[in-house]
Specification:
Layout: E1 5-10, H1 16-25, E2 27-32, E3 37-39, E4 44-46, H2 49-57, E5 61-62, H3 71-77, E6 81-85, H4 93-96, E7 103-107, H5 119-125, E8 130-137, E9 147-154, H6 161-185, H7 217-226, E10 233-237, E11 240-251, E12 262-263, E13 272-275, E14 280-288, E15 294-295, H8 296-301
Parallel strand pairs: 1-2, 1-6, 2-5, 6-7
Antiparallel strand pairs: 3-4, 7-8, 8-9, 10-11, 11-14, 12-13, 13-14, 14-15
Helix pairs in contact: 1-2, 1-6, 5-7
Length: about 325
């Protein structure tokens, strides 16, 4: 296989398996990431994950405030192709044309399903039974380019956005390498997407995590898992936020109680059980305001609500 000169665009942890795979098989001449950010209580400057691994691998890192500021550096390094994965900015037509063999995007859905910023979360939120990874040639649209390869995987019954992201990140590397091999050989497939079948996975915000207990237990189960670990599902207890996490269990009966009522459930004695509009939802992990995340059983033995109390009221 011919080694390609590559520029790699990416920022968070989910891009790391693809970066490591590309660097092992090809020559990555430049990594482009978002600028480092201040984080934590001390507001210390924290290296972006892709930048940190590029440092480890001895790859030059460039962190422009705006993507187009990299045009001059790319022109000097002359990459043949570019790999883009969770970079954090849209690339202009001039940037997409900066490498003669094109810009390839790794997207975590089976396109044209779930185009957009949060495909992993929305696959769970919408109750999909499977998802996957797509590689595509980028164009000026949002995830509208011609598909090269796809690989599917089932979504587990207790899958969270975090656990699914970990699996898809590794699968992304498995899709990227044959994609680059096909590009290097000049035989990369180009399958136009069916735009009429497209669905969207818009960006999420913290406000999306607020649970409406009048919804069914099935819907709320998907919301808790689909927003774990970020932005996180939450309700209120005594006027203060209470974050809710997997593991979860959907129960058939809400015991005739109003939505949001804490229940005693023999089926889930060590979980926080809450009546929903249809059925009840048992939650295995919680985080009260100002506290660390803990198992629901420990929470209930301490400052947790008693049966009959209302959440979100």
């Amino acid at each position: 296989m011919r080694r390609l000169r590559l520029a790699f665009w990416g920022t968070p942890d989910i891009a790391l398996p693809c970066l490591r795979a590309a660097a092992a098989e090809h020559e990555v001449v430049l990594c482009l990431t978002q600028p480092d950010r201040r984080a934590g209580r001390g507001r210390k400057l924290k290296r972006q994950p892709v930048a940190a691994v590029a440092d480890e691998l001895g790859i030059e890192v460039y962190q422009p405030a705006k993507a187009d500021q990299a045009l001059e550096r790319l022109a000097a390094l002359k990459p043949e192709a570019m790999v883009v994965l969770a970079y954090g900015q849209l690339l202009s037509p001039a940037m997409l044309a900066a490498a003669p063999l094109g810009a390839v995007n790794i997207h975590f859905s089976l396109l044209p399903q779930l185009r957009g910023a949060a495909p992993i979360n929305w696959a769970i939120l919408r109750g999909h039974e499977r998802t996957g990874v797509s590689s595509m040639f980028m164009d000026q649209g949002l995830d509208t380019g011609e598909v090269i390869y796809q690989k599917a995987c089932p979504i587990g019954a207790q899958e969270t956005a975090g656990s699914l992201a970990d699996r898809l990140a590794e699968m992304g590397a498995q899709v990227l390498l044959p994609t680059l091999e096909a590009i290097a050989s000049g035989n990369a497939p180009r399958q136009a997407q069916n735009h009429q079948a497209a669905t969207w996975a818009p960006m999420l915000s913290k406000s999306d995590g607020l649970l409406d207990w009048s919804q069914s237990a099935v819907e709320l189960d998907r919301r808790v898992r689909g927003l774990d670990p970020w932005p996180g599902a939450y309700t209120t207890l005594g006027g203060k936020p209470l974050k809710l996490f997997a593991p979860t269990k959907v129960l058939e009966s809400n015991q005739g109680q109003a939505p949001g009522t804490v229940l005693t459930c023999e089926e889930a004695p060590d979980m926080l059980c809450v009546a929903c509009g249809q059925g009840a939802l048992a939650l295995g992990s919680v985080q009260a305001a100002g506290k660390r995340r803990m198992e629901a059983a420990q929470f209930l033995r301490g400052a947790g609500p008693a049966a009959g109390e209302r959440l979100g009221a």
